[in-house]
Please model this.
Amino acid sequence: MRHVRIWTLSNILMSSQFLTACVSTSSDGVVVPPVTAYSPAFQDRLADEFNALPPACGPDTVLDGCSAARRAIMDYKLMRDQVRAVD
Model:
C-alpha cells in the first residue's frame, strides 16, 4: 500500500509541474489560465449556431423551450471575460 501512495504522490507532483507550464501569473501573483484564441471563421460559425438556439434556460431551471447549451455558452463567455480581466 505504501508503494501505491508514493507512486500517486509522485504523479501528482509531476502533473503539477506540467500544469504550471500552461498558466501565467498576473502581477499580483494570481495564476491565470490561458484563454484559447479562436479564428474569425470559427467565431462566425459559433455565432450562427448560437443564434439558432432558443432562449437560454435559467442557471438553475430547465423549462420546455429553453436552451441549456445557450446558458452554458453565456456562462463560459463570462468566465473568459473574467480571466482576461485578471491578466
Residues 2-20 form the longest helix (19 residues). Residues 48 and 69 are 14 Å apart (CA to CA).
